[in-house]
């Protein structure tokens, strides 16, 4: 075993060091801070369809809130109006294709179907039974849902840190003690955004 | 019309891991240096965030404006069309990829430098991989060891020696080449998971040791130690505890007043006179063209750009590209067979590992029993092997997105319950295999795809290789054994198909004694243009089974040191 050095770092020294680290000349290539103005991307109908879709991917149940309560759709809406703007139309077209398939296969729009029938629509898409263009949407929407549920709340999702609570991720600390790497113990969550606020700036 | 600037002694193209290291010995020797870098400074307080979306999803610390315009194309064989796409391994910033890399800081093995000789001696010439152009390096262990030592102490590397002047210590890596002294700092902090994996390895009779890392395990040279916050992968260090060149060698060189940095400057051509000597570089900054004359030029961009800069720099003396009259520029290229090339192994454990925090591969434990020539290959049908690293640092999106080991679907309540229990119970291992150059693996200029300036991008041709595939499969079995010995309930293995665009790339301006089979000499200076030096993975003749950066830095230091010490002869 290598000799263990005592961990002398406190949160205070970490912050102090980070602040004085600007010794490096300033002027980064890109602006790191991102504060997009919330922009309405979805019509009420589109929002209902998307929420129905996301809620079947990750339903509210005895384990706690699902994708919608965690705010995956808000992340997607904020980002399609900002960083992901180039894919906005593809996303909306894919959403329309899913809703159209729900109508042809189950008789009404996705949001108006029972949970069971909604699951059938998703299963058809996932198994390749539904038209090809719904599959790309499924994969992209699932990926964006994961980002919205488990990414930093700074980007519009992960409401009340519920996504991190779901997978028991204990939060982005600036420095950690050895106790926070002990196996098999529950770690006290540190509910903060890495962007230095409560994470809800949208 | 280009604006002519005041001449300097040396131009260094690219201030990343390689160029950012070379500037220090040059500056200390009193040479006047122009450091020309396509990116600029990043600000730890503003840019380096504990944020997976910022670092990993959007790659804010791993990209740059220039590399976006010149992404290489890729194909798996010469008779296929090459296509652009996939993440670029290149980077534009002062500090380059040393800002966001994992900072594992390895020395290669003596065997890596003399693979051909050693294989012939132990197994016979028939054991060398078919179709391979592998060659011994023109330098050996005694040539490079002093420079490993210098760089380890200059930038600060944490680790435990396993072989000091032939005296072995099983707490360190007993398979390493002899070193003259201990690392300047002890290894990074251990944790429960790593101790658990070490016990499992010992139960198999193996000798686990902690990763060598260019991250401070204790305060070093005025900078603090690692915070183990778990956003090291593709992120810069908010504490400046990762010893990126923008925190170490570059500021040190600036103190001498001999280094002038030209940032946001894109080098477009290296110029040469009719005698075959380079005269300086041409670059673009804010849309304006400049010519920076110099007595010597060192090119330290990424492997792909090193080769491209030579190939597009045509002149009377070099009609096929700078220092390419023997047609060797772009040859003997190869990517590293590692986890990104399909050689990954994943495991699911029945308990919470709590490896969310940490420092990626640098807070890791390594097994070297199955790498290089540490074991007898008689009858195995391949040479080399792979190092096996288990490590910390898991990010929430990636953990929720990872495969469910066949135990649950990918959506719905069952999936949700599965990630609730298991997102923090899965671990990955990083394998890196000894990789070699081949006849049909090379870099050239893409005949169709061009950057906005009209210059061709690099075309990468790299197909499957049986030797490396067999070495990966062999090492993956060993990794599976290790995970199972540690109590993993399920282990899955990737399919090693080979590297595409890679963050570990080698060759293209290979180092050698013979101009017919290499581009630079044993000092890293071009055979055909003696005042031109090449820095980076592009000079490697073999990869080793480990991360390349420390070797890149040791060689960059050595080239710069040689240039400074023989200044009149080389540049006079």
Provide keyphrases for this structure.
heterodimer, A: 202 residues, mainly alpha, 8 helices, 0% strand, disordered C terminus, B: 572 residues, alpha/beta, FAD/NAD(P)-binding domain, seven-stranded antiparallel beta sheet, 15 helices, 23 strands, 18% strand, globular
The CATH topology name of chain B reads FAD/NAD(P)-binding domain
- The count of strands of chain A amounts to 0
Question: Low-confidence segments of chain A, ≥5 residues, pLDDT <50?
Answer: 1-36, 198-202
Pairing-aware structural class of the strands and helices of chain A? mainly alpha
CATH A-level architecture of chain B: 3-Layer(bba) Sandwich
Largest interface, C-beta closer than 8 angstroms, per-chain residues: A-B, 67 and 73 residues
* Alpha carbon gyration radius of chain A: 21 Å
The overall average pLDDT of chain B, rounded, is 97
Quote the distance from N terminus to C terminus of chain A. Answer: 48 Å
Number of domains of chain B: 1
Shape label of chain A: globular
Please render the helix and strand layout as text.
The complex is a heterodimer of chains A (202) and B (572).
Chain A: H1 11-20, H2 44-57, H3 67-70, H4 72-80, H5 88-106, H6 115-126, H7 132-150, H8 162-167
Helix pairs in contact in A: 2-6, 4-7, 5-6, 5-7
Chain B: E1 3-4, E2 8-13, H1 19-28, E3 33-36, H2 44-47, H3 52-57, H4 65-69, E4 73-75, E5 83-84, H5 110-113, H6 115-122, H7 141-156, E6 163-164, E7 167-168, H8 192-203, E8 209-210, H9 249-255, E9 259-262, E10 266-272, E11 278-285, E12 288-299, H10 303-312, E13 334-335, E14 337-338, E15 345-348, E16 364-367, E17 386-391, H11 396-401, H12 413-422, E18 426-433, E19 442-450, E20 456-461, H13 466-485, E21 490-493, E22 505-506, E23 532-534, H14 549-565, H15 567-571
Parallel strand pairs in B: 1-12, 2-3, 2-12, 3-9, 4-20, 12-23
Antiparallel strand pairs in B: 4-5, 6-7, 8-16, 10-11, 11-12, 13-22, 14-18, 15-18, 15-21, 16-17, 17-18, 19-20
Helix pairs in contact in B: 1-9, 1-14, 7-14
